[in-house]
Amino acid sequence: MLNVVAIMGRLVADPQLRQTNTGKNVASFRIACDRGRKDANGQFQADFFDVVAWDRSAEFVCRYFQKGSLIAIDGRLQSRNYQDKNGNNRTAIEIVASNINFAAPKSQNPAASGMGAPAYGNPAPAPAEYARPAAQPAAPAYSAGSNDDFALIEDEGDLPF
Fold first, then answer.
1. Contact 95, 73 (CB under 8 A)
2. Of residues 2 and 148, more confidently modeled
3. pLDDT given at position 36
């Protein structure tokens, strides 16, 4: 069966890193994904998805992402059953991340502010070598050519296959 999810959104809160009884790292977090349209009041709508990352992916997301970071995830959907505090049976559906990637430049990542990069919303000034585009070689010139390349081919209406 096919079970593939690819999603991009912003973290609603900082990811939480925990360890299982066997010592495996697991991170859980929630992302907000814009629906791309407005409701009747003119407000943008968003969906919220729970995500679980394991092992090195869990360490990666906890180290480099924080609330507001734009993140791209691919993985699979998983459902699990549990009982809440009142003893009611519940079902949780979450995305189990296979790959986690940055979806915004470093200058727009809130987590980067602690590593010497500018804070979120304050883009870094462009380095001198990026200020002007490098000289590009001229595009090859194409002649109009003749229309003989597209001449009508006479046939008898029979298909060759």
1. yes
2. 2
3. 86
Q: How far apart are CA 108 and CA 106, in angstroms?
A: 5
Alpha-carbon gap, residue 8 to 55, rounded angstroms: 21
Cβ atoms 75, 95 nearer than 8 A: yes
Strands, E assignment, 12-116: 16-19, 25-38, 44-54, 70-83, 89-102
Residue 147 CB burial class (10 angstroms; 0-12, 13-18, ≥19) = exposed
- The 10 Å Cβ neighbour count of residue 41 is 5
pLDDT band at 105 (very low <50, low <70, confident <90, very high): confident
Residue 44, amino acid: F
Q: 51 by DSSP, 3-state: which?
A: strand
Alpha-carbon distances, residue 34 vs 67, 123, 149 (angstroms): 16, 23, 49
Q: What is the pTM of this model?
A: 0.64
Half-sphere exposure of 23 toward its Cβ, with a 13 Å CA cutoff?
0
CA dist 48 and 11 (Å) reads 9
